[in-house]
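Researcher: Let's walk through a ligand-bound prediction step by step. First, I give you the protein sequence. Second, the SMILES string for NAP. Third, you return the three-dimensional complex as structure tokens. Ready?
Model: Ready.
Researcher: Here are steps one and two:
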Amino acid sequence: MKAIAYHDYGSPDVLKCEEIEKPIPGDDEVLIKVRAASVNPLDWRLMRGKPVFVRLMIGGLRKPKLTRPGVDVAGLVEAVGRNVTQLKPGDEVFGVCRGAFAEYACATEDKLALKPANISFEDAAAVPVAALTALQGLRDKGRIQRGHKVLVDGASGGVGTFAIQIAKSFGAEVTAVCSTRNVDKARSIGADHVIDYTLEDFTQSGQHYDLILAANAYHSIFDYRRALGRDGIYVLAGGGWAQILQGTLLGPLLSLIGSKKMCFFIAKVNKTDFVLLKDFLAAGKIVPVIDRRYPLSGVAEALRYLEEGHARGKVVITL
Ligand SMILES: NC(=O)c1ccc[n+]([C@@H]2O[C@H](COP(=O)([O-])OP(=O)(O)OC[C@H]3O[C@@H](n4cnc5c(N)ncnc54)[C@H](OP(=O)(O)O)[C@@H]3O)[C@@H](O)[C@H]2O)c1
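Model: Step three, the predicted complex:
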């Protein structure tokens, strides 16, 4: 089968399309014939292996141990391992796997959900990591409530476009922060208010929010703190390394002072949340925003585009 792989850290130039053996599913796994995948910043961060602690976390200080990029997947179950009970050949699924940028990939059944029949493989492949991050950031870390004033920073990317829609489905009043060209898109997917960050700095406006989800953080943690109302919660999902360091180190300390809470979090893959997202998809509560589509041979180009940091919604690989 054809699969994208890399054997050195570096720019998207390290990616090669290789002919390799079709994988055999383990006892707890299913073999998926991949119909679509989507790219995440995680893919280019692992490929770059920068900063070095990324290499320490995943192993492979000099050369990558994980050589097959791609986690978000949607496709058709072709075979199942002997312990798999909930899925069978022919099922249409979406979720998280290893090496999604390939003709076939294996995943454990607890990381997959059935794809709603009314949803395309491309739309389903756009969902897993980005929507899961938005859901868990808002619900679990942000304790979102009906009527909450929620601000999503980095609202027009993969995580942000899902965050707007999921926050609306929880009954929140949503403010989206994005650049000029994405203002209309943010409104069209449900944002009640949109702040164009090229014209206005929301951290200086005097407005206060019950919950700020930084899908992409570009301000200091102190600026976000200022924009929180009493008992407000700041949840950091991603952004620059400075913001992530601040969120990890200072977030817990600042949370000890007063009533505002601040944290960085990493989404946890689980079937229950994928099933919930499946229901959201089927009911039209979330409609993936797809910016660009590339063939398998275009993964390098797709990652190059995503790395520029201005994708509008998700970038999908179609097989
Ligand atoms: N913690 C976790 O578990 C987890 C999970 C998934 C992702 N992440 C991280 O979350 C971050 C977001 O992921 P993603 O998939 O949404 O990335 P993405 O799709 O690459 O995000 C791109 C978006 O960022 C926006 N952006 C760029 N500069 C901005 C600024 N100054 N202010 C506001 N928005 C700005 C862009 O909007 P404009 O074009 O309008 O500027 C663009 O739409 C990444 O750092 C990723 O690594 C974390």
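Researcher: And what stands out?
Model: The chain has a mean pLDDT of 97. The CA atoms of residues 187 and 194 lie 7 Å apart.
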